[in-house]
Design brief:
The chain is of the alpha/beta class. The protein folds into two domains: 2-90 and 205-258, Rossmann fold, CATH 3.40.50.1860; 92-203, Rossmann fold. Helices cover 47% and strands 16% of the residues. The chain has helices spanning 9-18, 40-55, 67-83, 92-102, 114-119, 121-127, 143-149, 155-170, 187-194, 203-217, 238-249; strands at residues 2-3, 24-28, 61-63, 87-89, 107-112, 134-139, 175-179, 199-201, 230-234, 256-258. Strand 3, helix 3 (67-83) and strand 4 form a beta-alpha-beta unit. Helix 4 (92-102) packs across helix 10 (203-217).
């Protein structure tokens, strides 16, 4: 499993709860954070190198726990994984499937990074759900960097969130896709602004369910006979990754190994 930073740990948390018997290796590419404003072509090559690094460790499944990486480079990751005969579980399609299923009005919002919105990945995924949906996408360039920084929430952050939510309120969405794995940490704030009747769809639950289905279909699921292991790799500072990561994972991180991602 990989992400641009610690946000994907919200996905890992749900996977550890849903599939406690499985082993997980999580790579946080903190040296390249944030992905949301990176050059798309450079990012695609980075994703290729990360996929090669993780699949070289004999993984049986590759999870892209990053919305921007899914939007920009899921095809690249699948190309690498195909050479290793490994399936890929991205984060966009499972969220779109849930959002389309639970919206009553058909008005769905997407809050995401600029690269994710500009890719059109959520719009395409929602259009493929077989029902008429009115999709409102909002770019939130400053939200993930703020959350990753670990700064305390203050009135400035609340005003930022209100500004991002304004177009969603105007569109009267009844379902909002949190299109970045960092956003669950500000979900209570978003819920307060939008109201309790707006359903929030995070990546964690959706991806954990998709991982479970994929492992079962592929005949790769472990028997529920105890707890598996989980370990961490990061490309940036280990201390800051551990400090922030514990807050995102809501569990002890243990050992964190710093790795270099070779150029592809």
């Amino acid at each position: 499993m990989f992400d641009s930073g610690v946000g994907g740990l919200t996905v890992l948390h749900e996977c550890l709860v849903s599939l406690p018997e499985e082993d997980f290796v999580y790579l946080g590419d903190t040296a390249w954070f944030p992905y949301g404003t990176k050059d798309p072509e450079a990012l695609r090559e980075r994703i290729r190198s990360i996929a090669e690094t993780l699949l070289g460790g004999r993984a049986k499944l590759l999870v892209i726990a990053c919305n921007t990486a899914t939007a920009i480079g899921a095809d690249v990751a699948k190309e690498v994984a195909g050479a290793h005969r490994v399936e890929v579980v991205p984060v966009v399609e499972p969220q779109a499937e849930i959002a389309a299923a639970i919206t009553d009005s058909g008005r769905v919002g997407v809050l995401a990074t600029p690269n994710t919105v500009e890719s059109g990945s959520y719009r395409r995924a929602l259009e493929g759900q077989g029902r008429a949906l009115e999709v409102t996408e909002v770019e939130a360039p400053d939200l993930a960097p703020f959350i990753q920084d670990g700064s305390p929430f203050d009135e400035g952050v609340l005003e930022m969130a209100r500004a991002y939510c304004a177009p969603l309120e105007s569109a009267e969405v009844d379902t909002l896709i949190l299109g970045c794995t960092h956003y669950p940490l500000v979900a209570p704030m978003l819920q307060r602004i939008l109201g309790r009747d707006v359903r929030l769809v995070s990546g964690g639950h959706a991806v954990a369910a998709a991982v479970q289905r994929t492992l079962v279909v592929q005949g790769l699921a472990r028997e529920p006979d105890g707890e598996g292991d989980y370990r961490f790799l990061c490309t940036g500072d280990i201390a800051s990754f551990r400090e922030l990561g514990t807050r995102f994972l809501q569990m002890p991180l243990g050992e964190v190994e710093r790795v270099e991602i070779p150029a592809s």
